Amino acid sequence: MNQSNSPFSLKYLKDDLPAGLVVFLVALPLCLGIALASGAPLFAGIISGIVGGILVAFLSGSALSVTGPAAGLTVIVLNGITELGSYETFLFAVVLAGIIQVVLGYLKAGVIGYYFPSSVIKGMLAAIGIILILKQVPVAIGYMKDSGVQYHIGAVIIAATSIAIILIWDLPSLKKFAFFKFVPGALIAVIIGILLNNAFITFQPAWVLDVSQLVNLPKAASMNDFVNQFSLPDFTQFANYKVYILAVTIAIIASLESLLSTEAADKLDPFKRITPTNQELKAQGIGNIISGLIGGLPMTAVIVRTSANVNAGGKTKLSAIVHGLLLLVSVAFFAAYLNQIPLPCLAAVLLVVGYKLAKVSLFKEMYKLGWEQFVPFIITIVAIQFSDLLKGISLGMLVAIFYILRTNYRRDYKFHQDPKVDGGLITITLSEHVTFINKGSIANKLTHVENDSHVIIEGKNAHFIDLDVLEILYDFKENAKQKNIQVEFKNIPERIKVSGH
Length: 501
Description:
Layout: H1 13-37, H2 42-59, E1 66-69, H3 74-84, H4 87-106, H5 118-141, H6 153-169, H7 178-182, H8 185-203, H9 223-227, H10 241-268, H11 277-294, E2 299-302, H12 303-311, H13 318-333, H14 335-338, H15 343-357, H16 360-368, H17 371-386, H18 389-410, E3 413-418, E4 425-430, E5 433-434, H19 439-447, E6 454-458, E7 464-465, H20 467-479, E8 486-490
Parallel strand pairs: 4-6, 5-7, 6-8
Antiparallel strand pairs: 1-2, 3-4
């Protein structure tokens, strides 16, 4: 394999190291936030991020996809822990879900990811971008629900400064300078954010961020404390049927999300590398097995972190591995220092990522492609906003399938009538695939053929003609004599007669 197309190459170390750092900065609050929203220990989110970043990235065939705890599983995790009664029992379900994913990989079920239209994939990306923007704006302006604070001037200043730095860093004119090329703007934004908050302490105390507006990593006083943060699954619940129902649910949803996210990652890949989907299912399954065994949340390939990886210049899976190693090192040794990072800084990073996923030019581009692309795209976006990821994708798929069927219905044949020939020579040329979907339109067209006509039905282009359509064609030929219609078949298969009919 050409080195530039390989999912892992030290050739791009200078790109992957800073990209891994950016992904780490994005993933850190996401790991903690998803764990909090899931009703799980905060450390569980970090465990999932570490396993996904190191183990799954190593086993996966994807060059740019980043795995970790997924927002799309939050409700399932929360309800699962409540339903099963303990987090340890839930971990058992995560282990079983991982085993199911590995089995699906060996059964070659990964091919299902190829059956999702690009309009739905792009709609999913744009929807996630919009969700990111909506979720991070309150963080960026310093809104604190519990204290009733609508906005915080210090948070606004830090977020606005961070966004400005990131946007300036992305200017093509600055990329020719080595410093701007190799040092990620997000890192500078975080450093400036920390310095600004510390400057507020001296010069403007009212602007200092509340402790709730800073990263809050669990701190371990000793190695023993660190080890004690891990949890083991409760295998004594093997007879609890609810565990198996939850395991199947997690396996199916996590697999679909991973396949869709991986497909989206391939579309973002500048080298256009294609991820082996069955290998991805096996990697995700092994990751969930290990995560469940040591106390982590279930994981999927996550498009938010993946997008951050691509936008930061990541080229191979090394960037994902670096991000996982940084999560491990940070939680083990530097929690106290990382807890100085303002959340508005991280919100700024996510706001920029969100805009790049849902930029206005994408909507214009999809509109220019026509209603068949634009409607499923928009429906997917809207449905995800008002439901969840999978329900939105499912609705988008239904709309896309409707347009596919409608297009197929309309393009089942070509109709040509020659006015220069007595009776008007009519030539009906069937398309490549004529299925039962085309039955109605063909029957309707044949019904309206005028008396005394000469009809040629040409099947030279058809690779497949459904039996239902053949029935209509042969019935038309038999009944045409009553209307003095001459029917001629060319390259039409013989009629298959069913005994008794």
